[in-house]
Each structure stands twice: as structure tokens, then as C-alpha cells.
Amino acid sequence: MAAITEHVEFPSLLIGVELLSFQEADLPGNVVATYSSRTVSIIKLDDRKTIHSWNIRHGHRLTSPCVWCEETEKFTTAINNQEILAWPKDETSLEKVKRKRLKCGVHTVFCLNKLEPLVLCADGTVNFLSKAEARQGASHVPQWKKIRWCHALCVADVPCVLHLVERQNGKLLLVFSHYRPDGTWTQSSKEVPKSGGSLLNCCCSAGFDHVNIYFLWTNGDLCWMTVSTNGHFSNHEKIQTLMGVQINSAMTMVDSSHIAVACLEKEGEVGIGMFDIKFKALQAWKQYPTKINKKVQLFCVCGHLITTSHDKIYACQYECQPSTLASILGQRKVFSTQESSLVETSHFSWHVESQKAEEKRPEPDMKKLFTKLADPALTPSYSDFKNTLLQVETKCIGPSCVSSLFDTLISHSEISTLHVSLNTILDVPETCICKSLQFFLMTTEEELKKQIAIKATKTSIPKDVTKMSPFGPTKAYIINLIMLLPYNDVFLLECIKSVHFGNILSLLGHLCHLLCVMTLNIPITDKKLTVLKVIDWIGLVIDGHMTQLVLSSDARKIILKLHQIVEEQTALAKDFVSLEAVLQQLKKQCAKIPKRQMTGQYCIEVLHVY
Amino acid sequence: MANFRVHHIRFFEVVPKPINCLTYEPHTEKIALSRSDGSIEIWSVCDNWFQEKIILAVPDHSVEALVWQGTQLYSAGLTGHVTKYSLNQLKPEKSCSSNAGPVWCLVSNASEDKLAAGTEEGCVVLFDTANGDLQYYRAFDKQEGRIFSLAWHVDEEIIVTGGIDNIRMWSVNSGHAIQRLTLGRQEKNKETIVWCIAITSDMTIISGDSRGKTCFWNGRQGTLILGVESNKADVLCLAVSPEENSVFTSGIDPTVVQFELTPISTETDRKAWVSSLVRTQHTHDVRALVFAGKYLASGGVDTALITNLLVKVKGTKSWFRYSGFQHVGLLRTLFIVVGKILEKWFGHLFLLVVIANLQVVFIYRLTILNVYFLQDDKEFITPKLSLTKVKVPTGMLLPAHHMVLTCDGRTLITATCEGTIQLTEVGDDLATLSHTFPSENQPIHLLQVSLDGLLIAAAYGGKQLCIYNTQLNKKIYTLPNYKCQASAMGFSQNSQELVVAYTDQMILEYDMSCGEYTDWSRSNTKTFPIQWQKRHSKISHITHNPRNNQQVILHDEQMFCILDKTVPMTGKDARLYSKSSWQTHGDSNIDKTPKPFHICNKYKYLLHLDTLTEDWLVAVERTPSSILDTLPPVLGTKKFGT
User: Do B387 and B372 form a contact (C-beta atoms < 8 A)?
Assistant: First the structure.
């Protein structure tokens, strides 16, 4: 879930000048605002008041966002793309502050946690501020028009800098610089293909060993690229198309799975929206107090989203919870994509790669396939039928078609194909499980024997025990097979109510027999069927038909028998509980006895002292 | 913090010896302790139970009894002699025969001018020790059977002895037995041996015997007041409190049982002995018990000295176990690199130093110094070693008890029994005495030389620390006195600082350019964490990290610690390790915040830890279980059934 509070407007005295950035300041709740004219201010977000401000000399211009560096405890910025200025927070005038001049030119100064400031030079090189001097002589004319966007972040404790440059021919090149343990910086780059329209904005987030970069295009396309820490780029993929993106929109990263987009139009109004990029859903939207037509900038700082245009600055607080399926359910339809209708109808896909794979499934041919299977006229020869069946066996059935398949097979009493389907299809819906159960319970042993050939089992079930079973071996096998299918008990409970009560009684008899056999410690045909599974099914069957079981006199006998077995098991379990307590004590006592250390007389070892 | 490569050595199979006797001197607050090999240790109680001196064992010289007379220490043993020791020279000073066979027990009179010894031949022999002398005085009448235990009444007229099946009371004036108390037998043919005996000022005799019984006798009437089967096997030792209202007994059954003299009822003043507390702290036979001020000290076959605080203070641990390793300088001197091989060649060695570059070997055997050059045939896997003797002029060197070598291995520095420090230069074929620093009239218990060989630090028994310059051949500083004794010293890599650890866990650093405390010392000594100060194991060795001179590596038996001087102390309440698990704080999720103390408790007991080159360490460990394996079996007790 995510939420955005009402917008609050900043006082007018700050407005009217070109704002470079809002960054976190030395204290929580404070932000440092950089105005390109010549002012750096510290603003308290709670009351939007300026606490402190510094001005540089007339004629100079601030060209990089001012950042607070915890390591050096100084504010750092760049002037006229040439000089770097760093000063402590108690400094009153910037006139006397020592400046560092870099010949190669300064584009942006960054600050990463517990590291000294990083400098992105105008020629695209990156280095720490203290080492940047060494690069003075290496200045060269850049091969591009301008740096469109840049950002610094740490990935697995490795400082990385990304910047996007626009070449002379208008093409975009993404450059990734990362720091190596030997003290050097390595760069790798990849051209960013145009998606549609022109690029509006970029943002990025750090993954475990890679960086996710998101591109927002003017046509609303949100695209995605990753770059690993060894400089390997993934392809430029489209995630979705955001509706309402305008020519003046801006985007920023909120957390690893949320982005915020400013100037987003929705139902004729303009506001700020927050998207879940994992589930591709708009999670929150808040209208601006007044309509904004000009180009805006969006900053996410200190739990606030700050939108700036030439005459207005709005700040709003946001709340953003981790992205989970539960929180997203029911929200996705709020904002649908324009083009990806195919994706919309299928289930959620977590990765673009897997999404593509799903799209390739031959679903349109499914109906023909089922018709072929069900209608003998369409498969005149056995080989035709076999070929068709093979397609089912190759698991090329999409989840949405499984219900239709089972319905068709049951309606045509296709026992053999149904058996194959149960064996091959992984996610059989609960309705299909119950329908199959109903179908097989109503089918006689003889009919099943004809179409399903099971291997002779090597069980050692005594004959008197086998006699007690209400089903023949084939029927028992197929019922057990159904019970082994994965299910959700909430859905299955609903579906099992539809099974006929007579069948429920025979199923209960079979379950009772299984429980009896299993507690006698006799292996049954399928080893995977555990006592717990049988108990779950008994519970489900009883829950589903509680009223009828109470009312029906036919159920008495089986209920009493079941109770007797369970009672015996409860007594046994009680004994186990007491035995467990004794063993637990024994284990505790054993743990007290120190283990004899088997150590050699001499070794060389590596010792880490923390 | 730091990574090291460690030579982890467990082949140094030193076996601590069982404790035989304990005796306490209340004025100097020192305990003398003898072990089964005949060595004697002096522990300073006021210095937090610091093992400050060791008198080496003399072969075939057992110590069965130890007695203080003022600051004079006497022992008696199976050689039949009573021996007086010089605690400055750390060697026997005078000896006198009992003329009645081996001596089993020895006591002093209250005025501390006589000694009484109980002998194998059944004689009580008196020795005159007035004016620091030791002379045979006279013997009492001979009795049948040996005398195992002895006690002298505070009035000095009565001596009680414990023997086989009986207790006798003797008149000191006449030398005749005046009373005989007979003990019963548990089995008809099994003699009852009175292993220990004591007499209080009101003539109550307390005895412990082989039946496991502690008996209280009325000495005036010769009647038994109380006989309690306090232990499951022989009662070997007992201790009576100075107030004579509390008695502790123990023996082969290692349970220590307390008896207290308590009023029978609130209406009368009559008092009776009743057993009260029981302590089971030893694993094997307890052979000696002694009151030491507010402590009860006990020792036995499990080699550990255990101290119990008798008046419990809330929030403090009431008992401590001190391992049986003899830590004072010389005995822990390196046996490491070729120790085993040399042991085969020379048998029992008393003092051995092997320098790191394996070139020169110094061996001190009794009072003779031998110097050898060590050569090997350069075979990598199985080198054959040979020794070439260097000539040492006789009579040149005084007997020594501490030796250290300079880094080049060519200068030997010895702390002599006379209290002087001698420098011996080793040439290619001759060792010559180059200088002798005069004595400070106190014994030296710690000796250290700087890496450049220019400075020598010596810690004296009187808590004095002196610095000598080997180039100027004179004492240059007497460092500021501290209230406790130094337990370890170490020069920094550049020889500019001397770090000293004291027995109260204080660590001080002295500047060698002016002989005063360094700035680090001045600013940090008052803010040492309480958890550090509460430790009872003493720092036994100090060195510096060769890669970082600001890191001091200290170790004791339980742990080693890297003290980072660049990080200020984090306050008195800072947690260094979790008490319950003895783990450094937050071992699972490592706390990376800077802290001055970095503790590693991987090794126990850590006998020696030193730095080699770069990141190499050498750690000598003797695990508690390996010591336990060498001990004799314990008294069998039924754990289950009837």
C-alpha cells in the first residue's frame, strides 16, 4: 500500500529562482536547497522555514546540487562548473572558504553514505574528491553534447555512478562507472534505444548486485534496464505504459519497488502519482492544489515528495509499504496499460523474461485441441488421438484453460485422458479437483480398470485389511492420486460441497481405511500420501458436509469408526508427548556434557579479531 | 579489526602439578604453596592473587609441609630435613636434619621462634628458629607409628599429634605424652589415620581421619564432643578460622564442608559445632585448606588454586579458580620451537631460552649457564639439529632466575639471585660478561629488553620499575610507583614506550624519552571499563602488533586482547564481552563500531602468545580437557541407583 498526503505549498520567498535540487541535510527533517542563482539554504520541512542560507559572490553560479557529507561533515557543491566548494555547517561566509579548482570541469558532486564526496567531471570521468586533482592533466573534450542525467549509489558497498549523455546525433548513451578495489574507476556504457517520444526522466535503484535504471518517455512508456556491478547491461525492456504522463512530467525513485511521477493527469486533473513497478499498478494519486502547466522537477527527500515548477513548490508526505501481492490485489485494474492487453488477461508476471515466455504459449489452439480430444470424429485413427494427447502431455496447457479441459474430459468420460491430465498438469484448480473426484467416485472399478493400467504394487497390506477397503485397487489409486494434488483448503472447502453426499460417504470410508492402514504402519501404493495429508482431507470432507453428516443415519457407522481410530491415535499421541518431554530433558542433559575437542597438536590457522 | 595467521601449538605438554601444602602469612598477605614436584610458589593476596615468585623444585626433594614464621618460609619433607628459603634469591638458604627420618608435618609456635616437626619414626622434633636461624633443638619421646599431623596450642605448652588410631597430647616442657585419645576403626583390620589435626585456644581438638570423619574433642577431658562423617572418604585437610568459630574440612572426597560454632539455643551461651555449608568446586582430592584474610584457599590434585570469599558481597563473584600453570617469567620461557628435541637431549631443564632465528641456545641448569650455537642440515622436512658449545668462563656469571635476549641473540640479560642484572655478550666461541647493574636490594620478578637492545626494564618485588640503558651502562629512570605489582611489560616496536600491565588489570604506558606517563596513559587510565577491571586472570605477556605500533597485544590464560590506542575509551560501563558465553559483544552480528578493546577467547588455556613477522602469531594452548586427561581418577561415586 502507498498513500500521499495533501500538498503543502512553500512560502513564496523561495520561488522565482531556478532550483537545482533538494537534498538531505545534516539533521533529519532538514533539507538543503540549491538555487542555481547563488544561494544554498537549509529548510526545515515541518514548517518550511529557512534555517540557514549561504550566498556566493555575484556573477558566480552554483552548478551542482549542494550535498551534505557526513564523512567530512561539510556541505559540498560546485561553482561555475569549475570549482568545488566545501564548508562546515557553522561557517558564516563562503568568501573565505577554500576552493578546489578542477581543470577538467565539474558536472555534479555526489555524496554517498560514509564516503567522501564523489565528483562527476564534465568529461564523464568519476573520482573521489581528494583524488580528483590527479586527473587535472587528463582533461579532454567530451564526445557528446551534454549530460542529461546522473546519479550515484552504492551497490554491495561499491560506489557506482550512472550518467546519461546525449550524443551529437541525439542518441542517448548510458555510462556506468564503478569503483574497483585497486582504487581505479571502471566505465562501461550502452546506448539506450528510443522507446517512443523523447526521454522525460530517469531514476535508478540499487539491487543486490546490480542497478535498476528506469526511463520514462513522453509517450508514457516506462522502460527498464539493469547493469551489474561488473558492467554488464541488460536489454532495454518496456515495463508498462503509464497513462496520463504529460510533456512536463517528472519521475523519481521512492524505494526499490515504487516510483513517483509528477504532473500525472487522471480524469482531467493533474496530480502526483505513485506506482508499484513490481506489480505495475498505480497505488496512490493526489491532485495538486493548482494546475501546473510548466516543466516540473520532482525530489524525494526526508519522506516528502517535493514538486517544483517555476512559480510553485509543493511538498507532500508519503507512506510506502513493501510491495506484496496481498497489498496489490484489486488495485491493478485502476490503471491499465494501453497496449499490453495480452499481459492484462494473463496472470501476473514477475519478470519480463518470464512474461515473454508466457506470451509464446499456444493458447489460441487450445479449444481445437480439446475438441479433437473429446470428439472421436476429429481423431479417426489412434495415431491422431495419440498425437493430440501428446500435446496435453507436453504441458502446453495454460492455467486458464485447465477448467475447460477438465469439463470437456469429464463430460465425455475420458478416463484415460483425465488420468494423464491429472498426472501432467501441475496446477489443477480446486473446482477441477472436486469435479474429477466426483467423476471417479461415480465410476465403477471395472470401467477404470479398462482404461487405467496400474503397475502391480509391492505393498504388504494384509488381505483382511484390503478387504476392508471400500474401493478396488484402481479406484483407490486414482483417488489417492487426486488427494496428492496441491490445493488451497479455503477454495477446496467451497468446491467439495458440490460433491454428492453418497460419494462423500464412500470417500470418507476410503479415508478411514487409509488412516487405519497408515497407522498400522503398512506402506501403501503411493509413498507420497502421508498421514497428515489424509487427516487434512478428512477434515475438509467433514467441514464441507457437516450438516449432512449430522443428519444422515448412513454416516453414523463411518463416523463412529473414524472416531475410534482417531481416539486410539490421540492416546498414542499423548504417549508421544510425554516421551518427547523425557527425550527433551535427555537432550538437554546431553548438551551439558562438553564435547571432546579433537584437535591436532599443531596447525596454522587464520584468525579474525573483531 | 585485524587478521592474523597463527601457528597454533598444542604439543607443549606441560602438566601442572598437584598442590600439596598451603600456608598464609597475614602481615605481608602472602600465600606459600607447594606442589608435588617440590616447587614452591608465592602468591600475593593483596595483589589480587598474583603468582609473584616461584622457587624451583630440587630433584628428589619433596615438600610435605610449609610454614611461615614472619617473612621466613620453612618447609619439611621426606628427606628428613627442615629447609629455610631465601625469598630474594628464590632458593633454599639453610637446611637442618630432624634426625628421626622423613618429616610429615611441621608447625610453628605462636611466638614464631620454634618449629615442631612430626616424623616417620614417631618423634616430635623441635627446631630453634630464633633470630632467623635454623637449629635442631630437641626431640620428644618416641611413639609407635609415624606422626601424620601436628598442632601447637597457642599457649605453647601443649602439642597435639595425629598418628595411627590415636591422637596424643604432649607437654612441650617435659617432652612426654600427657593424654592419649583413641579413635575407633571402621573395619577391624583397617587402621584409622589422623591426616589432619588442629587445636583451638579453649583446648578443643579437631581432627580429620581416614574414615571420612571430622571429630571435635574436649582436650582437657580427653572426650569426644562430636564426630561427623563429613566426607565420603579420607579427610586430608582442615582449616580453623582465626576467630576459631569456623572449621573447613575436605579430602579425597573433594567436597569442602564447613562447621560453625553456634549457640545451642537463644537462652544459653553454650555453643556447639554444627555442619553448615558444603562446597563442591574441586574435581579431585583436596589436599590443603587455609584461611587467607577474608578468603578460604584450597588446592589439591586438580592443580587449581580455588579461593572463596567468605563474606559474600552482592553482585560480585564469590569464588575464583586459578589454574596450576606456573606463569612467572622463567618457567614460561619459550619451549616452543625446538623444545621437544632439546628436552630429549638434556632431560629436565630448569631454564631454557631459544631465540627466534634459531641460532643461539642458552640453557641454564641449576646454577650453570651453557651457551650453544644451533645448526641444522637445511633439510626442510626432517632437519637434523646439532649444537656447538660456546665457552663460558666459570665463576663469571651469578645464578639467575630470569633471562631475556636481545633481538640479535648475541646479548643475554640475566636477573641474578643477588638482585643484580648481568649482561653477557656471546662471541663466536666465547661468552663474556660485559656489565653488571647493581642490586636494588629487592628481587626482580619481571625483566624485559627493548627491540633495539638499548633499554632494559626490570620490575622489582617492592613495586618498583627501573629502566637501564645498556649503552650508558646505568639506570636512567625509576618509573612512577603504582599501588600494585606489574604482571607483564612490553616495549613498543620503536622502543619509545613501555606498556605495563598491573595485577589490578590497569594498563599504563610510560614514555621512555622522559620516564613519565604518556598522553594516552594520562587520558585513559581513569576510564577503563569496569568489566575489564573485574577480570581476575592476570595479563602475562605484552607485545605490539608489528604492523601497527598503536596496537598492543596482551594476553592471559583466558583470552588475548588487542588494545587499540587510537580509539578512546568508550566509558566505564562499556561491555567488552557477554559474561554468560564469554563471547565478545555481538559475535554473531559483528559490531563494527570502533572500540579500544578487541578480545579473542579462542584459546584456553593460552600459555603464550607472541608476534612473529608481519601478520604471524604463535599461540601455545593447553586445553582444560588435556590437563584433565593427565590427572588421576577421582573418587568413584554412585550417580544412579541405591
Answer: yes
| Cα–Cα distance measured from residue A476 to residue A464, given in angstroms and rounded to the nearest whole number | 16
Closest-CA residue to B74 (of B126, B19, B124) = B126
pLDDT computed for residue A349 by the predictor: 33
At B85 the three-state DSSP class reads: strand
- What are A's interface residues with B at a Cβ cutoff of 8 A? 594, 596-597, 599-610
d(CA B108, CA B82): 12
Instruction: Answer whether A610 sits within 8 Å of B590, measured CB to CB.
Output: yes
Contact (CB<8Å) B6/A600: no
Q: Which cell numbers hold the place of A403?
A: 477448467
* pLDDT tens, residue by residue, A239-274: 888 888 888 888 998 888 888 998 888 878 888 888
Residue scoring higher pLDDT (B341 or A489): A489
Q: How far is CA B251 from CA B37, B235, B354, in A?
A: 20, 4, 41
Nearest CA in chain B to A606: B5
Smallest Cα distance from A166 to chain B, Å? 43
Instruction: Give the residue from A114, A125, A205, A110 showing the smallest Cα distance to A157.
Output: A114
Is residue A459 within 8 Å of A520, Cβ to Cβ? no
Q: Rounded CA gap, B249 and B238, in Å?
A: 4
Spell out which residues of chain A touch residue B602, defining contact as CB-CB under 8 Å. 607
Q: What percent of chain A has pLDDT over 90?
A: 2
- If one compares A482 and A466, the residue with the highest pLDDT of the two is A482
Q: Is B617 within 8 Å of A607 when comparing Cβ atoms?
A: yes
Q: Which residue has the cell 558481597?
A: B313
Q: What is the pLDDT of residues B306-356, one digit of tens each?
A: 999 988 887 778 899 998 887 654 344 444 444 434 444 444 444 555 554
CB contact under 8 A, A607 and B584: no
pTM more than 0.80: no
Residues in A closer than 8 angstroms to B7, CB to CB, are 602, 604
ipTM of predicted assembly, 2 dp: 0.79
Exposure string of A572-590, with b = 16+ CB inside 10 Å and e = fewer, is eeeeeeeeeeeeeeeeeee
Question: Residues B53-101: pLDDT tens digits?
Answer: 888 888 788 899 999 999 899 999 999 999 999 988 888 899 999 998 9
Which residue, among B238, B242, B241, B239, has the nearest Cα to B251 in the 3D structure? Answer: B238
The span from the first CA to the last CA of chain B, in angstroms, equals 56
Average pLDDT for residues B376-404, to the nearest whole number?
A: 75
Q: B591 at the A interface (CB within 8 A)?
A: yes
Whether the CB of B474 is below 8 Å from some CB of chain A: the reply is no
Domain ranges for chain B: 1-16+528-637, 329-439
Q: What is the pLDDT of residue B65?
A: 94
Distance CA A229, CA A210 (A): 6
Q: How far B484 CA lies from chain A's nearest CA (Å)?
A: 30
End-to-end CA distance of chain A: 41
Of A602, A606, A609, the CB nearest to B562: A609
Are the Cβ atoms of A601 and B10 closer than 8 angstroms? yes
Domain ranges of chain A: 428-565
As a whole number of angstroms, the distance between CA A123 and CA A315 comes to 35
Interchain CB contact of B587 with A (< 8 Å): yes
CA distance B73 to B77: 14
Residue B382: is its pLDDT beyond 60?
A: yes
Highest mean pLDDT among A437-441, A532-536, B236-240: B236-240
The 10s digit of each residue's pLDDT in B579-617 is 555 544 444 555 667 788 888 888 888 888 888 877 888
Q: Is residue A386 over pLDDT 70?
A: no
Chain B window 552-571: which residues touch A at a Cβ cutoff of 8 Å? 562
Residue at grid coordinates 479455503: A490
